[in-house]
Specification:
The complex is a heterodimer of chains A (485) and B (441). Chain A is mainly beta and 485 residues long. Chain A has 2 helices and 24 strands. Chain A has one domain: Porin. In chain A, a hairpin with a 2-residue loop joins strand 1 and strand 2. By secondary structure, chain B is an alpha+beta fold. Chain B has one domain. Chain B has 8 helices and 19 strands. Chain B has a 15-stranded mixed beta sheet that branches. A two-stranded antiparallel sheet of chain B has the order 3-4. In chain B, a hairpin with a 7-residue loop joins strand 7 and strand 8. The chains are: A mainly beta (485), B alpha+beta (441). At the A-B interface, strand 2, strand 8, strand 15 and strand 17 of A face strand 6, strand 9, strand 10 and helix 8 of B. Chain A: It holds the Pfam family DUF1302. Chain A: InterPro entries: DUF1302.
Chain lengths: 485, 441
């Protein structure tokens, strides 16, 4: 399988380079686009403490992956389109580093969630239909039906209202330069937007309503397997093994939002009926040899809103607000241990961002500068904890926990041939992440980029899961070569 | 006697034919009218052959060595382009007044003459402040820079347009090294003249136009879109803009100062589109005067760029792919000096604006020289004029196949080649949040 996959990738790559142009026209109104990419990530950090049970020494390679992503589009008319994104991925990480445990690099390929459309897969190669949908776009009404990503919200690098799709954390956690695009797991759903006639409500402009309905493709977040360098938490104690899981496969999710503009203020009101993407455990009875643990995905109602406003010269800054309120969000009861009990509490996620384009280098593109603050506020926080583990300094939910400042700056040079960027995340509790990057795009096809990640800070002995420096061992440098066609 | 009468009739007929067909003026300086006369009396302009006393003939190629013969009719930027290798083919077929204007625009220009009133910030109304201008060029004989620019802004001929094309980045060696393809749709919400609803689109009162731009190539940017609302009085209401980013799959608000940022890494700023896309309230305009200027001809002898986005092999290039060799002709144009009111990447733009009788219906600002903050000549913007067949023929207009912007300091050039179709019958909802997401990835 692995060899077949690799041969297919190489053959297709050679074919595509030979045919490279704006898009490859396969037939009338039928186009093929895509990219071929190899990425290699070198470990500048430490041995992941969550893999101590299967790994003795520090690994040098965190990830080595080869991708062929193809986008097929059939658009026979202006109003109708069929689109598919297929991914052929070969993961060589465990082959290149002998220190690594031979983990499954594609845990998303589970039989239970077979509708992921992975017609071919093993532990280090996969062929999958990542997205597949049809669009019907009429004057005021637009529908998208199929396996898709539904993204709401306006904050960068934060998921306040971007909550519809689960994430595949299993290969590079949340550290891809494309943010969540390649890890947001598409779901089978129908999504529609209707533009309301402007003369109907003259004081509200650009009014639209949007809704989605997922008839049962409920998939949880997927975490890295034991042995994966990105594993973010230790394996559960043996007593918790083989929990009884109550997943939500077959149940439905839905939501809607109303968008508007009043003068120069624009925004949305959102509501979503969802199931938690991460599993919550409960342990009612202590038995032998292991405890009876139930793992569930509680239903949540999320109410949200976004607002944005553009300030004119000389400030020329866009101000954006995004917030969500989830009543009875599931947490863990800090009064229960060694048992595990879920305790619900109202939870607020809020974010405010400032963005400005500024001319720094004469003749060059403007520098994009963003400053963002996000915070999570939890009611009765002093009665809650983050994880089922013991309640201590590293497992507390503070009144203002996870408050994070993000500073993002990017600058293109020489007609976007070069791009330098840096993201700095800072948590006042004492944690930070510095993420510089450099990209070189000499022409239409080749892209070379390199990114680094450094984590640090003294907060909570590097162990509070709400604190960024819980991932202190993941300092790394990533290089990528991409050929797009 | 009979022969004499017949001869008189023949001579008179020949003279009328001469005037109507726009045959060249006698090569005699005294008989050449001034640019102001040509505009105000709606005359046929002289040709470059007339203006140079016969030294330049139809089909002659102007280059660095012989540029001095026509230097006084060239913008400063064009002179520098010729110094850097651009070559111009001289054309002597004079354009006739109103030849390239949609009939209804001409009729409304004449019917509404003298009825334009301008407020203190440059917004033009019909007879009284507050009544939207119905259409046509508001000022047949503009007296100052504001009136010239009012013709650009309120004299728009089309009700909507659709462009599909590609930005080609050309390095100083003359090689195309990068391409960005995009589609633009712009819909007028007021001053609608040809397509229903005429006048103002109900529900969109106060909006001038709505625009949707979407990048279609390369893959990395495919689906990146921008939706902008321009208001009738852009001094009172600044533009409202939103971008959809396919990587983030989100629509984000953008600041209007991105007008000054480069368009997709090209030599054009976002505000350079159509000569000056920025709100006019951000600029001061000074009319330098009307001049005879050489510009790319409005009707090319062949199609330069096909609907399939392929170049005609007949189109010649100079300095590699840096300069398309186009036909250039004389027209009377207004020279307007524009200076920004706020901190800007340009210290000045000298714009060459079409006169009401010889408009280029897509962008009345046909060319401009842009100066850097130190006051040095930096860029030259010029249209690839000439498209008049097909859809354009139906509406009786010519359009450009795009523009080029030459960075005269770095010798880098951006050529934006496209096909434009006007009056497609687009509704304003085509530029909306819904459409940003629908066109995205």
């Amino acid at each position: 399988m692995k060899k077949l996959c690799l041969c297919s990738i190489v053959a297709l790559f050679i074919l595509l380079i030979g045919e490279a142009k704006a898009a490859i026209q396969l037939a009338d109104n039928f186009f093929l686009r895509g990219l071929f990419r190899h990425q290699m990530i070198y470990n500048m950090g430490q041995l992941n403490p969550n893999n101590l049970s299967v790994q003795d020494d520090k690994n040098h390679i965190n990830l080595s992956r080869t991708w062929l992503i193809t986008e097929l589009e059939y658009k026979p008319t202006d109003i109708f389109k069929v689109y598919s994104k297929m991914r052929f991925i070969w993961d060589q990480t465990t082959h290149l580093d002998d220190e690594l445990y031979d983990y499954n690099a594609f845990p998303l390929s589970t039989p239970h969630y077979g509708i992921h459309m992975r017609p071919g897969h093993d532990t280090d190669a996969v062929a999958e239909i990542w997205e597949l949908y049809t669009d019907l776009n009429m004057e005021k009404l637009w529908f998208r039906l199929g396996r898709q990503q539904i993204v709401w919200g306006e904050m960068v690098q934060a998921r306040i209202m971007d909550i519809v799709n689960p994430l595949d954390y299993s290969w590079h956690f949340t550290f891809e330069p494309e943010e969540f695009e390649n890890i947001r797991i598409p779901l089978w759903a129908i999504r529609g937007t209707y533009t309301i006639e402007q003369s109907l409500l003259p004081w509200l402009e650009e009014l639209y309503i949007e809704g989605f309905y997922n008839p049962g493709d409920i998939v949880p977040n997927r975490n890295p397997e034991l042995g994966n360098p990105y594993k973010p938490s230790p394996p559960p104690p043996w007593v918790y093994q083989a929990p009884e899981t109550e997943d939500r496969w077959g149940e439905d999710e839905f939501g809607g939002r109303l968008g508007y503009r009043i003068g120069q203020v624009a925004g949305t009101f959102n509501y979503a009926y969802l199931y938690a993407d991460s599993a919550y455990q409960e342990c009612a009875a202590i038995g032998r040899p292991s405890w009876s643990v139930k793992q569930s995905y509680p239903q949540i109602d999320v109410f949200g809103m976004t607002l944005n406003y553009a300030l004119n010269e000389p400030i020329s800054t866009v101000v954006t607000f995004e917030g969500s309120y989830t009543p009875d969000y599931p947490w863990y009861d800090n009064s229960v241990f060694p048992g595990i009990a879920v305790k619900e509490a109202d939870t607020w996620d809020l974010g405010i961002g400032l963005q400005r384009f500024t001319s720094i280098f004469p003749g060059e593109d403007f520098m994009n500068i963003q400053l963002q603050y996000t915070v999570k506020i939890v009611e009765d926080h002093d009665k809650l904890k983050w994880t089922p583990g013991p309640y201590d300094e590293n497992n507390i939910v503070e009144n203002l926990t996870r408050d994070t400042f993000a500073f993002v700056v990017s600058q293109d040079f020489s007609h976007k041939t070069y791009k330098a960027q840096c993201t700095i995340l800072y948590q006042p509790d004492g944690a930070y992440k510095i993420n510089p990057g450099f990209k070189y795009s000499p022409g239409d096809h080749w892209i070379f980029d390199i990114y680094a990640s450094w984590w640090g800070g003294s907060a909570f002995q590097n162990a509070n899961p709400a604190c960024m420096n819980g991932l202190y061992y993941l300092d790394e440098i990533m290089g990528r070569i991409t050929y797009q066609f | 006697m009979k022969h004499l009468k017949l001869n008189w009739i023949s001579v008179s007929g020949a003279f009328l034919l001469y005037v109507c067909l726009g045959l060249p003026y006698l090569v005699n300086g005294a008989e050449i009218p001034s640019p102001e006369e040509v505009i105000s009396k709606q005359l046929v302009p002289p040709t470059i052959e007339d203006l140079t006393g016969g030294k330049v003939k139809d089909g002659d190629v102007i280059e660095k060595n012989n540029m001095d013969i026509v230097r006084e009719y060239l913008p400063a930027g064009a002179i520098e382009c010729i110094n850097q290798g651009m070559k111009l083919i001289m054309r002597c077929a004079a354009e006739k007044p109103f030849e390239n204007v949609i009939k209804v625009t001409r009729e409304m220009t004449i019917a509404n003459a003298g009825k334009a009133v301008m407020d203190t910030t440059g917004a033009v109304y019909y007879e009284q402040i507050g009544t939207f201008w119905p259409g046509g060029l508001p000022y047949l004989s503009p007296k100052d820079g504001m009136e010239v620019m009012a013709n650009v802004k309120y004299g728009i001929s089309w009700d909507d347009y659709h462009t599909k094309g590609t930005i080609y980045l050309v390095n100083k060696e003359g090689q195309v090294y990068k391409k960005i393809s995009q589609e633009n749709k712009q819909i007028m919400c007021c001053m609608r003249k040809s397509l229903p609803p005429l006048g103002v689109w109900p529900g969109y009162e106060g909006q001038m136009f709505r625009r949707l731009s979407v990048i279609t190539y390369p893959l990395e940017l495919r689906g990146q879109g921008q939706f902008v609302v321009r208001y009738y009085d852009d001094a009172k209401n600044y533009d409202t803009g939103f971008n959809y980013f396919p990587t983030f799959k989100r629509t984000l608000r953008i600041s209007t100062t991105v007008w000054q940022d480069n368009l997709g890494g090209s030599d054009n700023t976002n505000g350079d589109s159509e000569g000056l896309k920025e709100p006019y309230s951000d600029w001061n305009f000074k009319l330098v005067g009307a001049k005879y200027i050489l510009i790319p001809e409005h009707r090319a002898p062949f199609i330069y760029y096909s609907q399939e986005e392929e170049f005609n092999p007949k189109l010649q290039w100079d300095e590699g792919r840096r300069w398309p060799r186009m036909g250039w002709t004389i027209l009377p144009m207004y020279v307007v000096e524009a200076t920004p009111k706020q901190k800007h990447v340009y210290s000045k733009k000298v714009m060459y604006v079409a006169s009401p009788t010889f408009p280029q219906p897509i962008s009345m600002i046909e060319m401009f020289d842009a100066y850097d903050p130190q006051g040095k000549l930096w860029k030259f913007y010029c249209p690839h004029n000439g498209s008049w067949q097909g859809w354009n023929e139906k509406w009786g207009i010519t359009t450009p196949w795009g523009t080029f912007m030459a960075d005269l300091q770095t010798r880098h050039t951006t050529q934006f080649w496209f096909n434009i179709n006007i009056n497609q019958g687009f509704p304003p909802t085509l530029a909306s949040f819904k459409e940003l997401v629908a066109q995205g990835r």
